[in-house]
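One thing: could you explain this record?
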Amino acid sequence: MQKKYVIGVDIGTTSTKAVLFKQNGEAVATSYEAYPLFRDTPAMAEQNPDSLFQAVLKSIKLVMKKAAISPDRILCVSFSSAMHSLIAMDENDKPLTRSITWADNRAAEYAEKLKKAEGLSIYHRTGTPIHPMSPLTKLIWLREEHAELFNKAKKFIGIKEYIFFQLFGRYMIDYSVASSTGLFNIRDFKWDDSALTIAKITENELSELVSPTEKLIGMVPKYATQMGLLPETPFVIGGSDGCLSNLGVGAVKPGEAVVTIGTSGAIRMVTKEPFTDPEGKTFCYVLDEQHWVIGGAVNNGGNILEWASKTYLSKEFSSYSRYMDELKKVPAGSLGLFFHPYLNGERAPLWNAEASGSFFGINMMHRPVHFMRAVVEGISFNLYAVLMDLSKLAGPPKRITATGGFSRSPVWRQLLSDVFDYPLEFPESIESSCLGAAVIGLKSMNVMNEITEIELMDVLTYLHKPQLQEAQVYKRMFPVYKQLSQTFAVAYHQVSEFKQTIE
């Protein structure tokens, strides 16, 4: 019998990735398809859903071509996707909007009103903090600001639902992605009646809820041909990128934390029951029917690095590798320069959509390279603050694994270990969400009995241990960083109001 392979696909904020794996978790071929994020205004962050659909088709086609295997050897294709997207669909199943992403801040005003009116009651039922990222607040904004469009909509869906509808003509959403909408009860595994009432929609306007292991067979033939697959190839719906990233690195036991820095960032732990924070500082999303993922996501990760390298420092630091090489010339602490990376507002640890970025402590000794190192340190400090909040809820971590595009750089890997003052494990493959999706696919196809069997896979990791001197510097800096962020918090609303008067 020929060996079978599984393809894991991750639909992200700026690209879709496809990885073809052997059943033991070994990656055979990888492909990427990038697309733009539309920011017509500072608060907007949208995607063209058709561009993402084409990226899925192209990435799978390319990975099949690279692997050079026959389509009958594909066991299944399984999916991961970014959370919190919203697309309004009309009665003819055509999009009325682009995909409004997690990074879109236009619902900020309505998120604040909802938070004041409802407190934490919705959060404790849905596990999703009240924030403009969530489809719940996006729906309120859409209804209030674009009533005609809202009333025309037949369905409100996310990007993975859009892609599966194109392939199979069926609106369906897995429990994992549903749990990030702010509309789903994470204990009852149903759409939350109170949240639906607040959004002024019904269950009929949302997709059918299904298990992450749900599989469909019989896609539209022309798309199968485009991807180089057979029409009867099973497609498994999978879960959300954050939850599947934990799964993909085997961090599925209590006390095993994962820090991810990609376009944005997050820290997460898997639990065997749902936990919500008394102050609403952490999220709680579904991994599958027996596992939940708690943690905190930040808006500001690699996107801030890209911003820094493309603005006033772009001529001197033209590539990611050069950028990181330059950082080694600067001692830990950037000569007392602090950076708060809140250029896109912030989710955890602030949950303040009006937060803005800042450099603090600038003096005549600082050069461009000091600002660049301060940017990386600031992103890392912000994630460490999230870890501190998570540790209060679930206890200090026993093991920390790090994933995401940032891990391509040994410099940033070491810096993060120094900031956390903790040994960090880095998987050889950075596409953990794709592997997590593949594991869900293997369970769906009865190759695995439980997702925890990923621990049996041979996944190579690298270890970075904290350097004593650098860790001591960051240990002294972090309380100052945190105090500054709390001090600046009182000014964010005033700055936001001032900006509105001059725009």
The longest helix spans residues 468-502. The first strand starts at residue 5 and ends at 11. The radius of gyration is 22 Å.
